[in-house]
Amino acid sequence: MLMLCRNEFPDEALAWLDAATVLAGEDDVAFSRLLGTGGNFGRQELAVTYISRVQSAFTDPRSRQWLHALLAGEENVSYLRSPVGQFDPGRAGGIQSSPLEKADDTGFANPWSFLFTLEGALLFAAAVVRRHGAEYSEAAVPFQVRGATGGHATAAPDESVLGELWTPEWTAPARLEEIVQLLGEGRAEWNNHPARSGLDFARAVASLGVDRGIAAFERYVFVDRLGQNPLAIPADRMPVRRRESVLLLADLDGWLDRIPRGSSANVAARVRGVEQALFTHASSGETADFVEVLAALGRAHEAVATSGAARRVVPPLVLPSGTAIADELESVLGEDPELRVALALATAHDDPPEGERHRPTLHGLRPLLSPVTSEQHRPAWSKRPAASSLAAGPYQALAMAARRRAMPRSDDDQNDDVQPAVRGARIAFRHGRRLRTGDVRDLIDGMLDERRVADLLAGLLTIDWRGAGRGSLSGKSASDVALDLLLPFSSTEPVKVAVADGSCVPKLFRPGHQWPALLAAGRADEVLDDAARRLRISGIPHVIRPHHHSSNGERLAAALLTRVREPDVEHALRRVGVLPPTTTDADKEPA
C-alpha cells in the first residue's frame, strides 16, 4: 500500500509520507513517534483532524482571535471542544484538566496551533539511515532516539516509553531552507557512534557530538498515559556546551548494556539509578554530580554481584582512566570526607607479583569486598560469595577484610630493610592515597555517612587506579588516644623516631595477627594494651596506658587499613610517648 502511494501520489504528498512512515525493507514499515503510528494517536487520525481544523480556521468567525492568541501567547478566547492529541499534553485530559479551567469550559483546542504544529512536523522527514548500524532498526528521524525511563521529574519506572525527540534551538534568524537542511542532516554522536537513546543524546550534547550552531535542545518524551493515549511530555532543556568529565564515563555503556533488566527488580532499580545520575551529570557537568554517578554505580555493581542471573552474562566492571578521574575529583575532595575515606581505601594496593602487573583492581581491597577473582589477566566473578559485603555495612566489611589481611603471609616483611621489633601482620597496603588524621578520627567516631562511604567505595573499586594512587588527601589533623596508639601500626614503612642524641632512627611497627578479630569482638582495650606494649618493646619510652575506650571495634579495625602521612604518625608517637626533640623543625605540630 505504501509503495503504491509513493508511486501514485503527487509530489506534494510525499512530504507527509516521509514524515509519517518509512519502508525499512521489503516487508517492514517503521514509524516516527512524532506522528504516532503512521499518523494515528490511538483513535485520533491526524489527516482527518487536519481537514477538520482547516475547515474551522476558514469558516469560524473566531479564527482571527485564535490566530492572535497563538502568536501572542494569550489565553483570552474560547477554543474548540475537540481532541488535542499528544502535541498539547497539558490539555489532553479534557475540560478542567489545566490551570485555565474557566477558559477550558467552552473548549481547549486551538485549530491554528494544530495546523502550525503539523506543518512544522513535515520537516522531520523519516528515513532509514544506514550509519545507525544493525542495532538501530527503527526509523531514523532527525534528533529522535529510543526512550529512556529516567532523566525527568515525572518519569515512572514501568511506564511505556515510546521514544524521545530532542528539538534544537538556535539564536540567530534562519530561513526555511536552512532549517530544512539542519533537520535533514540532524544527528548526534556519542562515544564514536550515533546516539541511540535519550541518555546517549544527553551525553552527546554534553560532549559537543552534535551539529554546530545549535544553542540548546528541548527534550520531549513520548509516553502512554491517561490510559493508552500517547503524549509528548516536556522533560528537560539542555544547553549545548562541552562538559569534559562526561567523557570519563563513556566506558560504562558497554557494561550497562549487558545487564539483563529482567534479572531482578533490585538490579533494574539500581541501573535506573545510574542512568538518572548520568542524566543529571550530563546536564550540569558538575564534579559533585560526577561523584553521585560513582555512588550510583557502586550500588548497581553490588546488585549485579549478588544476582546470579546478572553475573552469568555481565563481567565485573573495570573503568580505565583512573588518573583523569582522580584529577576530576580533586576539586571536591576538600569538602567531602566520605569521598576522601572511600578514595583512600579504593586506591590502596600492594605490588602485584611478577606476571600479574596487567591485572587491574585485583591487588587491593576489591577481592576482599566483592566476589571477584582473576581469570586470564582480567577480573572475573568467583564461584564463592564475598567473605564480607559492603551492602551489609562498610565497617563490618572492612573489619572482615582487615581480619583476612592479618593472616600470616609470606610477603609480610619482604623488601623491608628494617625488621620490626615485634613480629606481626602487615594489614595496611603498601601503596595508595594517604588520609589526614581528622578523617580517620571521623571514621572511628562514626561521624561519616556509612551508607555513602559504602556506595562510593563500591564504585571507586571498579576503577583502575594504576598511576593515580599516590599523594596525600586534603583534610585536617586530629588526635585521640586510641587513634594515636594505632596509627604507627597502620604504616607499612619504617617511621623515623627521635633518639637521645637528636637524630632519627627508622623503626618498623607491626600489629598483632589477632587485632582485627579482637576489635570486631569488642575487646578494644586488649588491643590498645598490646599496642602500648609493642611500642615500649620497640624503644618508645614512657608509653601511656590507655583508659577504657568506647569506640566501635569494627571501625577501629577498619582504620588499620587506612594510610596516613608520615608526619602525622610521628606526631601520634609523641602524644603517646616521651620522645626527645630533634635537631630539625620537620616534626613541628601540623595545623
Short description:
Helix content is 38%, strand content 10%.
Could you give the topology of this structure?
Elements: H1 2-8, H2 11-20, E1 21-23, E2 29-31, E3 40-41, E4 44-45, H3 46-59, H4 63-72, H5 101-104, H6 111-121, E5 144-145, E6 161-169, H7 176-184, E7 189-190, E8 193-194, H8 198-206, E9 216-225, E10 229-239, H9 252-258, H10 265-284, H11 287-305, H12 308-311, H13 322-329, H14 337-347, H15 366-369, E11 372-375, E12 378-381, H16 394-405, H17 437-445, H18 450-460, H19 481-486, E13 495-498, E14 504-507, H20 515-520, H21 524-537, H22 553-559, H23 566-576
Helix pairs in contact: 3-6, 8-10, 10-11, 11-18, 14-18, 16-22, 17-22
Primary descriptors:
591 residues; four-stranded antiparallel β-sheet; two-stranded antiparallel sheet
Description:
The termini are far apart. Residues 128-137 have low confidence and may be disordered. This protein is α+β, with helices and mostly antiparallel strands. The radius of gyration is 32 Å and the shape is elongated. The protein contains 23 helices and 14 strands. Helices cover 38% and strands 10% of the residues.
